[in-house]
Write a structure and sequence with these properties.
Layout (H helix, E strand, L loop, with lengths): L7 E10 L3 E7 L12 E4 L2 E8 L3 E7 H6 L10 E5 L19 E11 L2 E7 L13 E4 L2 E8 L4 E5 L1 H6 L10 E6 L1 H10 L4
Antiparallel strand pairs: 1-2, 1-6, 2-5, 3-4, 3-6, 4-5, 7-8, 7-12, 8-11, 9-10, 9-12, 10-11
Length: about 200
């Protein structure tokens, strides 16, 4: 389990494979401290398994299912990625409950300056709209955010300067794809209510 509070922005150092299977080596420092082979790590909001570790990098393998459902198939050498280690049982839940199981890829429809921060308008896959509510939680590329507004086919999130400084969301522009994970509680409530309909 994760919280959506990004610990570090890493950089893709090497990419091997194709759209059926990829192996990424990611340069990092903070997240490497207690990372072990077999451990989970969220990369741009996708829960992956560490399969190799060196002095300054770690490697993850990405299978076809994950490549088809996330933006990781488009990551290339030099790309920056959001990193988060799993929540420890004794840790604080500062963001919200995040599984690292991406529900779909959304498209940034617009980026607006908002004081010293920014606002992103994102067009999610249609089937995810029902899980988004104003002031509810959503994860965008692994970052826990609050839904600031809902449109007919879009939603908006407001980014404070700190979030822009410590995540990759400052790099995002209109037309970019982003990994989205909606609030797991909304999905469970929907499933529990199905027999009542």
């Amino acid at each position: 389990m994760f919280t959506g509070i990004i610990e570090e922005v890493g950089a893709v150092e090497t990419v091997r494979g194709d759209q059926r299977h990829r192996r990424l080596h990611i340069r990092a420092s903070e997240t490497l401290q207690d990372l072990t082979i077999g451990a989970s790590i969220a990369v741009d909001g996708v829960c992956l398994t560490v399969v190799e570790k060196t002095a300054g990098t770690f490697a993850v393998e990405i299978v076809a299912e994950t490549l088809a459902r996330t933006t990781l198939g488009s990551r290339d050498v030099g790309d920056r990625v959001n990193l988060e280690r799993p929540l420890q049982a004794s840790g604080r839940l500062d963001g919200h409950i995040v599984q690292g199981h991406v529900d779909g890829v959304g498209e940034i429809a617009a980026v607006f300056a908002e004081g010293e921060g920014r606002r992103l308008r994102i067009r999610p896959p249609t089937h995810l709209l029902r899980y988004l509510v104003e002031k509810g939680s959503v994860t965008v590329d692994g970052v826990s955010l609050t839904v600031a507004a809902i449109g007919d086919d879009t939603f908006e999130v407001a980014l404070i300067p700190h979030t822009l400084a410590v995540t990759t969301l400052a790099d995002r522009a209109a037309g970019d794809g982003v990994n989205l994970e909606v609030d797991i509680l909304a999905k469970y409530v929907e499933r529990l209510l199905e027999p009542i309909r």
